[in-house]
Amino acid sequence: MKITKICCIGAGYVGGPTMAVIAQNCPHIQVTVVDLNTERILAWNDENTDNIPIYEPGLDAIVAEARGRNLFFSTEVDKAIDEAQIIFISVNTPTKTYGKGKGMAADLKYIELCARQIAKVAKDDKIVVEKSTLPVRTAEAIKSILDSTGNGVQFQILSNPEFLAEGTAVQDLLNPDRILIGGDTTEEGQKAIQALVDVYSNWVSPEKILTTNVWSSELSKLTANAFLAQRISSINAMSELCEKTGADVNEVAKAIGMDSRIGSKFLKASVGFGGSCFQKDILNLVYIAKSYGLNEVADYWEQVIIMNDHQKRRFSNNIVKTLYNTVADKKIAFLGWAFKKDTNDTRESAAIYVANDLINEHANIAVYDPKVSRKKILSDLDYLETRSSEENAGSIITFDNPYLSCENAHAIAVLTEWDEFVHYDWQKIYDKMQKPAFVFDGRNILNKAELENIGFVYQAIGS
Ligand code: NAD
Ligand code: UDX
Questions:
Q1: Is 224 annotated as contributing to ligand binding?
Q2: Is the CB of 95 inside a 6 Å radius of any atom of ligand 1?
Q3: Is the CB of 54 under 6 A from ligand 1?
Q4: Closest C-alpha to 24, from 75, 74, 58
Q5: Residue 150: C-alpha distances to residues 84, 129, 153, 154, 188 (Å)
Q6: Sign (positive/negative) of CA torsion 17, 20, 22, 25?
Q7: At what angle do helices 278-291 and 295-322 cross, to 10 degrees?
Q8: Closest residue by Cα to residue 129 from 73, 66, 167, 179
Q9: DSSP letter for each residue of 294-317
Q10: pTM, whole model, 2 decimals?
Q11: pLDDT for 108-149, tens place per residue?
């Protein structure tokens, strides 16, 4: 089948960058990204690509190249579905906040709405691709909804999970470690797989394109995220032991990472992992395991989350303890709010939980983040429903200038590893702070010797 039109439902952190890269590398394919969120689509269509809704290094240039040529952003969902041969579903699948599985299971209501809309609109055969991260066996439910119309339209469901990491999305999409495509073992299923393989083959070499059955593909995505997060919780667990014993977690990570069986990546101790994926996907995995009665499997993976929560709480407790057991009415400056550098995404960022703990202790939090707005910071805190919006707004001051945010502060907490933090004039910052001046480096990025020479009391994670 020759693919000339693709549609993607969901213009978020995955749908936007993924489709931009497909459009850039497949000029012969028309790619339309649709979303119900009009504001988001307007931002994607903003003439000035600095204003596209997602900050990712290099993305603005790709959008500028392909948009209007063969890349389109639109709110006309039905039209895009009707015209496309391949439909990617890339909508959000957050943790359920209500009902059965609340706090654990993935909320599939947006996925189901997409399936119903495709079923309603489609007049000819379609390949439907699960791009969102989904519980294993979701394709079965999607198929049953799609086939329920009885109008003779044939659907093939493929699983094609996305492995990009935010902050490096463009590079990850251009040079993926692998592309995973799961499909039916029938002849039609294999044809659908081949059609999608052909799309990726425009820029990805064949040995990196892996095809499997649907269930393996769906489960591989949850497994990959669980393994990655497990490494962080493992090194963070050791960081606490390092602090008690005089070992240095950076040295331990380097020493074990040189073992080629372990590898050096994803061994950076931190204030705790954040982001929209790790926690959500592990909770979902735990829920799935429990639903099959696999309690030991569920408990094993749940520990990754328990450790991560402990690491965030430990960081805020340590700030309070070190500041003479009270932070009431003290200004604590936060450098960074995003869950990692080079993104404006704040979902599940450790900063939110650390701020929440410190506000409970009546601290005043001064935040500087190069890419995150005050509006976003306040909505993140309001989402926790710990206190009223007015109280949150009264406890948070935000700054566009890092030096001003640190002025008169009793302590600085580094919550995100933005490169610029390393290069600040730390003497200038020290001079304007309350003394003793404390730095709590939740990312182990600052130079301990330099800061201690200036006069800071410096504390890192795991040393
Ligand atoms: P997102 O919230 O940024 O984007 C999802 C978009 O879908 C939103 O703009 C929303 O308005 C839209 N949407 C929801 N229902 C819709 C409907 N019925 N019709 C049209 N639009 C609809 O989410 P995201 O971060 O892009 O994640 C999407 C999926 O990809 C999730 O399943 C996630 O787990 C997975 N994923 C995310 C990442 C990541 O780094 N963010 C990486 C890999 C996989
Ligand atoms: C993750 C997966 O890496 C990606 O493959 C998947 O598609 C989506 O989920 P993402 O959440 O965007 O990507 O970023 P990632 O680089 O994995 O970082 C997640 C969190 O872990 C961040 O808060 C980061 O700061 C933290 N982290 C990462 C550490 O604390 N230590 C590390 O060594 C690595």
A1: yes
A2: no
A3: no
A4: 58
A5: 20, 21, 8, 10, 18
A6: negative
A7: 150
A8: 179
A9: -HHHHHHHHHHHHHHHHHHHHHHH
A10: 0.97
A11: 999 999 999 999 999 999 999 999 999 999 999 999 999 998
Q: How many other C-beta atoms are found inside a 10 Å radius of the C-beta of residue 384? A: 13
Is 7 among the residues known to form the active site?
Answer: no
Atom number, ligand 2, closest to the C-alpha of residue 224: 5
- Distance, in Å, from the CA atom of 247 to the CA atom of 241, rounded to the nearest integer, reads 8
- Taking only the tens place, the pLDDT of each residue in 153-179 is 999 999 999 999 999 999 999 999 999
Which listed ligand is nearest to 267 at the C-alpha?
2
Instruction: With beta carbons less than 8 A apart as the criterion, state whether 128 and 89 touch.
Output: yes
Take atom 30 of ligand 1 and give the residue whose Cα is closest: 132
Count of CA atoms in the C-beta half-sphere (13 A) of 46:
13
Task: Tell which atom from ligand 2 comes closest to the C-alpha of 340.
Answer: 25
What one-character DSSP code corresponds to residue 76?
-
Q: Which atom of ligand 2 is nearest to the CA of 277?
A: 9
**336 annotated as ligand-binding:** no
CATH architecture of the region 306-460: 3-Layer(aba) Sandwich (3.40)
Task: Please tell me whether 183 is known to bind a ligand.
Answer: no
Residues lining ligand 2, Cβ inside 6 A: 162-166, 225, 228, 232, 266-268, 270, 273-275, 277-278, 339-340
In the chain, CATH 3.40.50.720 covers 5-212, 306-460
Q: What is the pLDDT of residue 150?
A: 87
Helix/strand/coil (H/E/C) assignment for every residue in 147-193: HHHCCCCCEEEEECCCCCCCCCHHHHHHCCCCEEEEECCCHHHHHHH
429-449 burial by CB neighbour count: b if 16+ within 10 A, else e? bbeebeeebbbbbbbbbbeee
Residue nearest to atom 34 of ligand 1 (CA): 133
Domain 5-212, CATH homologous superfamily name and number: NAD(P)-binding Rossmann-like Domain (3.40.50.720)
In 40-49, which positions are buried (b, 16+ CB within 10 angstroms) versus exposed (e)? bbebbeeeee
Angle of helix 295-322 relative to helix 214-245, nearest 10 degrees? Answer: 40
Q: Could you state, in chain order, the average pLDDT of each consecutive group of 10 residues for the chain (463 residues)?
A: 95 98 98 98 96 96 98 98 98 97 97 97 97 96 94 96 98 98 97 98 98 97 98 98 98 98 98 98 98 98 98 98 98 98 97 98 98 98 98 98 98 98 98 98 98 98 97
Summarised one tens digit per residue, pLDDT across range 312-353 is 999 999 999 999 999 999 999 999 999 999 999 999 999 999
- The ligand whose atoms approach the alpha carbon of 53 most closely is 1
